Amino acid sequence: MENIPNCPKCQCEYVYFDGSILVCPECSFEFQAEDVAEKVYKDANGNVLVDGDTVVVIQTLKIKGASSDIKKGTKVKNIRLVEPDDGVHDISCKIPGFGSMMLKTSVVKKSS
């Protein structure tokens, strides 16, 4: 079988075919090739986002424990799209003045 996908759980590239299933040697996750579908991430306006894009926050975000909010219009460079652990936040990024943070795709728009 050619073009074996990376492990959907840990992104290991050393997945191997074992009979009728694919197996990850690092995390022992077993899956079918049909189960792996490339997720498409879209911003609030429906534009497709990819790793490395620059986005703009479209609403003021209150941050628990922070002395200030992330203001509407804040530009966030070089985003990384991730499979959300909590099922909600799918953008990993660094915001100037706040540091590393997870955002939802629904609160950003792609910058031109």
From TrEMBL:
Domain Protein YjdM N-terminal: 4-32
Entry's transmembrane regions: none
InterPro entries: YjdM (IPR004624), YjdM_C (IPR013988), YjdM_N (IPR013987)
Pfam families (alphabetical): YjdM, Zn_Ribbon_YjdM
Domain Protein YjdM C-terminal positions: 42-110
Family statement: Belongs to the YjdM family.
Protein name per UniProt: Alkylphosphonate utilization protein
